[in-house]
């Protein structure tokens, strides 16, 4: 998989952060990259910014909480480029809150984006990959899918669920040429914290995250590229990447 010329990558949550950095990485390596997110203006800006890269870029406005949107995304990619070689389920939100404060609407949004979005992505692309007997499905989970933190009961639950879904998928398709990888970042400098509305949590995070030197999105993009670039007989099932001072 070292040569990405002519290969096609779909990235959800591509309008910022890890998705944006990963798009730049694969486009720079010559891949066709389909940028998917809700914010069409941001997608257009990213496409223009990466226009000088050797890989071709296309955009598809997509809400991963709507199954038909995700089905349409995969079909658009097949119609445009003929195949999907890598799907990165990267869309995610992190409105942390203390359960006593009952941010129920935010709980529901996390379930919809962080869990259903992954399921819809897998469901949309898997038949195509099984038919071709090749492909790679990746999902961005989190270190929060390995350990629970205060205010993260629901968020951690959704990220743990994403890991379990990917593990289960890997067992189902073992023996095929389709690979699965879960990427679990630690503290990364992205927009994720901007979705937090719980004032108690915001005050806590000022003290907690101030002690970490956050990773950059490009660091996670490199980890994603590493896993995707292994020989076809090598399946890197999970990668944990965090700052070296985050315990």
What form results from the Cα inertia axes? globular
Measured on Cα atoms, how large is the radius of gyration? 17 Å
The DSSP helix count reads 7
Sheet/helix structural class = alpha/beta
Protein architecture, described:
The structure is a single chain. The protein has helices at about 15-30, 40-50, 65-80, 105-130, 155-170, 200-210, 215-230, and strands spanning about 10, 30-35, 55-60, 85-90, 135-140, 180-185, 240. With about 250 residues, it is α/β, with parallel strands linked by helices. The protein has a seven-stranded parallel sheet with strand order 3-2-1-4-5-6-7, sandwiched between helices. Helix 5 links the parallel strand 5 and strand 6.
Care to give the gist of this entry?
The chain has helices at 17-28, 40-49, 67-81, 104-132, 153-172, 199-208, 217-228, and strands at residues 8-12, 32-37, 57-61, 86-89, 135-140, 178-185, 238-241.
Task: Sum up the structure in keywords.
247 residues, alpha/beta
């Amino acid at each position: 998989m070292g040569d990405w010329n002519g290969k096609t990558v779909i990235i959800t949550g591509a309008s910022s952060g890890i998705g944006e950095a990963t798009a730049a990485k694969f486009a720079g390596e010559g891949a066709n990259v389909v940028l998917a997110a809700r914010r069409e203006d941001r997608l257009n800006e990213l496409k223009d910014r990466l226009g000088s890269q050797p890989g071709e870029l296309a955009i598809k406005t997509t809400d991963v909480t709507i199954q038909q949107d995700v089905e349409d995304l995969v079909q658009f990619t097949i119609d445009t480029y003929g195949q999907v070689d890598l799907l990165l389920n990267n869309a995610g939100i992190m409105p942390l809150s203390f359960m006593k404060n009952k941010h129920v609407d935010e709980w529901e949004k996390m379930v919809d984006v962080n869990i259903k979005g992954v399921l819809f992505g897998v469901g949309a692309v898997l038949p195509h990959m099984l038919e071709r007997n090749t492909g790679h499905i990746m999902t961005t989970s989190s270190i929060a899918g390995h350990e629970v933190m205060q205010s993260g009961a629901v968020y951690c639950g959704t990220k743990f669920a994403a890991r379990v879904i990917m593990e289960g998928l890997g067992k189902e398709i073992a023996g095929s040429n389709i690979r699965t990888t879960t990427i679990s970042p630690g503290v990364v400098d992205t927009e994720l914290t901007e979705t937090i509305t719980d004032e108690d949590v915001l005050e806590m995070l000022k003290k907690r995250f101030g002690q970490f030197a956050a990773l950059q999105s490009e660091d996670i993009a490199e980890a994603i590229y590493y896993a995707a670039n292994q020989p076809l007989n090598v399946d890197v099932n999970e990668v944990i990447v965090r700052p070296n001072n985050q315990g």
